[in-house]
Design a protein that fits this description.
537 residues; alpha/beta; eight-stranded mixed β-sheet; seven-stranded mixed β-sheet; 19 helices; 41% helix; globular
Length: 537
């Protein structure tokens, strides 16, 4: 195995400078806030309900996942902070999910958080489950569901019922696509939830714990007059010996997890893509320094090459068109042995940067090379000169290329993500395989000050047309409220709580997260395309 003779990135980072020290302190403070939020999520429903769960001889949901995964294997959690601070939603949305290795196979694992409202499904937990299913589908992953749920959160049934059917549809479509689904039932799985084991390829139920039925005993009595107990109606032993819904009967929870691992082992799973063998060499520069590179203030720029020097293998990077379109850094590298094409913002996107980015994406697709987007931009250049240069048509080329690219893409939001820059750099709407953010990340149509300024101009213009005086005090108050609201709604924590990304990561973990994401993505074939929409010239 040989190292690709790409140039080694040199670092100009001064770790003794005040900006570095301030950046590190600001990002650490943000990470501390994230850690507190994660701690609340990991507590599930709280000490009372965790204790009640354990008193019944049950294993906590996160421990179930840990016992299912291979020893010491990592777990790439998706949407860990979903629901945090969202009215009516529990932190974590009563679902735990992500990518982990089971019997040597990367799988999408999800578990009901049974200590939170009995694992009931809320509107946002349904969205989170849909995102987890999308990850399995896009990346060709085996899916494993650990079920113990009270079903739909009935007060919110009007927001769950119709879109909830997509989950069952997707299960059957993944089966048709030869992506196996495995369901381990640890407790209640009622009403619509009964179709999860029913539509999975493999169903394991725990004796004297699993209860799977379309209607529980009270509803059966109301509907038919029949009096029947839980076990006779839908217990694990009945389904294993009479109905045939259960394929395996587990003696206890540990046995169910063992059976799940056994099922994955006999799949004889093979990845859709394996890169050429290559020695994996750690970056030449210290990854710990990533915490001090980006400012906690998204308006303060930084060179993305300093990030790449601490993320890619051996800090080697072959830059493409370094003298053209300099506000977008593009080039090739390897990351944990995977060949990758990188697009990283170094300022506002102008016409040259857009053209360069579109061409680079085409080149990567021509060679079937996965893409990494390091997003930090205030958007596209505006103004008379930019419009005359054709910023709209050139920006459209980049968005066209991103939209139609078929190689796996992983996006890391390292700073600002404003306006159409979010789209052009493979934001959530453009379906990157994975999308994670740094804690300093900000996302909005535009910054709070800019939006408040636009509001000021519009209000003054409207008043002038009407021939009335502007109420300066009232306008100043409105601007202040608007700016504050936008700033609050553009934080990393606000965005991740609403599933606009897959999670907030410590910048120092960027290399590891990218490696896990690329590895998961290559369970599906990696095939580029040369088919794009019309490019306006």
């Amino acid at each position: 195995m040989s190292v690709q003779p790409y140039p080694v990135l040199r670092s100009r980072l001064d770790t003794r400078s005040p900006p570095y020290t301030e950046n590190r302190a600001g990002n650490q403070a943000a990470l501390d806030e994230i850690a507190k939020a994660l701690s609340r999520v990991n507590e599930g429903g709280g000490e009372k309900y965790r204790a009640r769960h354990l008193s019944r001889g049950r294993i906590l949901p996160r421990q179930r996942i840990e016992l299912l995964l291979d020893r010491d294997s990592p777990f790439l959690e998706i949407g860990a902070l979903a629901g945090t601070g969202v009215p009516g939603e529990p932190p974590g949305c009563s679902v735990v999910g992500g990518v982990g290795v089971v019997s040597g196979v990367e799988c999408l694992v999800s578990a009901s958080e049974a200590t939170v409202k009995g694992g009931a499904i809320t509107p946002l937990s349904m969205q989170k489950s849909a995102r987890l299913a999308e990850v399995a589908d896009q990346n060709g992953l085996v899916g494993i569901s650990l079920i113990e749920s009270a079903g739909a959160d009935l007060p919110n049934q009007d927001r769950i019922f119709v879109p909830g059917g997509a989950g069952f549809r997707d299960l059957t479509r993944r089966s048709a696509a030869r992506l196996p689904s495995i369901c381990l039932v640890f407790g209640s799985s009622t009403a619509g939830g009964a179709y999860i084991p029913g539509m999975s390829d493999y169903a394991v139920m725990v004796k004297q714990q699993a209860q799977v039925y379309l209607a529980g005993p009270p509803l059966v009595k109301m509907a038919t007059g029949e009096e029947i107990d839980d076990e006779s109606l839908g217990g694990a032993e009945m389904h294993a010996s009479v109905s045939g819904v259960a394929d395996y009967l587990a003696e206890d929870e540990l046995d169910a997890l063992r059976l799940g691992r056994e099922i994955v082992a006999h799949l004889e799973w093979r990845k859709g893509y394996t890169p050429s063998p290559r020695e994996v060499i750690e970056p030449a520069h210290d990854t710990d320094e990533l915490l001090g590179i980006a400012s906690a203030d998204p308006k303060v720029p930084f060179d993305p090459r300093e990030v790449l020097a601490r993320v890619v293998d051996a800090s080697r990077f072959s830059e493409f068109k370094p003298r053209y379109g300099s506000t977008l850094v593009t080039g090739w590298a390897h990351l944990h042995g995977f060949p990758v094409g990188v697009l990283a913002n170094h300022g506002v996107l102008d016409s040259d940067a857009a053209n360069k980015g579109a061409q680079f994406i085409q080149l990567c697709n021509q060679r079937s090379v996965p893409l990494i987007f390091l997003q930090n931009t205030t958007g596209f250049m505006v103004g008379g000169r930019a419009e005359r240069e054709g910023i709209i048509k050139h920006g459209a080329k980049l968005i066209n290329a991103v939209s139609n690219s078929s190689v796996p893409a992983v996006t890391i939001m390292t700073g600002a993500s404003y306006g159409a820059g979010n789209y052009a750099m493979s934001g959530r709407a453009y379906q990157p395989r994975f999308l994670f953010t740094w804690p300093n990340h900000r996302i909005a149509v535009m910054g709070g000050k800019q939006l408040a300024g636009v509001l000021d101009i519009i209000k003054r213009g409207a008043a002038k047309k009407k021939g009335v005086e502007v109420n300066e005090e009232q306008l100043a108050g409105t601007k202040m409220l608007m700016e504050h609201a936008i700033e609050q709604q553009s934080t990393a924590l606000y965005a991740t709580a609403r599933l606009w990304d897959d999670g907030i990561i410590d910048p120092r973990d960027t290399r590891t997260v990218l490696g896990m994401a690329l590895s998961a993505a290559t369970n599906a074939p990696v095939e580029g395309t040369m088919r794009y929409g019309i490019f306006r010239h």
